Amino acid sequence: MKMRYCKRCLQPDTRPGIIFDDEQICFACRYEESKATINWEERQAELKSFAEEAKAEAKKRGNTYDCIIGVSGGKDSTFQAVYAKERLGLNPLLINCMPDEITEIGRKNIENLNNLGFDIISIRPNPIVAKKLARKSFFERGNIIAASEYCLWASAYIMAVKFNIPLIIQGENAALTLGAAKNQEATGNAFSVMQLETIRGASVDSFVDLSNNITEKDLFLYKIPTVEEMQAKGIRAIFLQYYVREWSQVTNADFAVARGLTGRSGNLHDLGRYRRYTALDCDLQIPNQMIKYLKFGFGYATDEICYDIREGRFSREDGKWYVNEYDGGCGEQYIEKTCKYLGITKEEFWEVVDKYVNRDLFEKIDGKWTPKFTVGEDYES
Fold first, then answer.
1. pTM flag (> 0.85)
2. Residue 323 belongs to what domain range?
3. What does DSSP say about strands 119-123 and 92-97: parallel, antiparallel, or unpaired?
4. How many domains does the chain have?
């Protein structure tokens, strides 16, 4: 097996859907480079025209709301909601798909967003079904939150159809910010979420498990309406990041903190990242990122440092320290919470995780999975 790194950032080519060019530079770095020549005024004009069309269409439909935004209460969704309201003059309906076992910080941040002056509908999928699906996806795919991501994405689209709201505003297009453009189009069209690796990787129907009493009717909130169905109802879906030059992880965090966002406390090593303003509403995401690290050789700290390198906050060389220091970290307390939630022992947890470890990239030394590769250097097993 070969693992190559982008020559500009620390993105490895083990990321599903990643594109590297002939100079071994990833698509995300090339996009960041292209931002200097993008006609942002033209994109802003297009965004404002979408907003005006949505207002006119909502009025015609007799609808109070002219756009819908899926929110977790975190940095990106806070930026989206406030931007839509204050900069575009829209009246958004916010949809919160509440994760099972939502954290107190998550609750506090949703309440903060509500108190900023927004109507919010919180959806909580059946927790018995959610837990069964988490167990199923963990054992069968080595991904604790795979099933919940279907519901997370689907909620805004379902509610747009049900409430007859003409515009859906999503945050960032991962094809642009992560470079995973092999399967997802690198545009402002947010109907392309159907092309995302998690959603594209398996049909929702694959979660039907009659032996475990999970039927098709249990999965309604996990199914995104078809593009044809939404377009027939005159619904448009866009990625705000595509149209807004100032969009970035750090800018969004600063923006949201100034408006009351609460981040995580505690040891950053336990989070597997070096910033406190991501994955705030669900602790299951933390061990899931650790498992991703063991599968592909990168975790969330790699994502963070790649953003920072591209935007000029760190050099590639300095970034290696952050990846080595934080990537793949997961505090024991989060593993214990996950085991309790899934109803398994820690021994069972590690038995499953061990099945999904990429042994071309990791070897077990003194009972701990240790990378064979050196961060930032091409590797061949």
1. yes
2. 266-360
3. parallel
4. 2
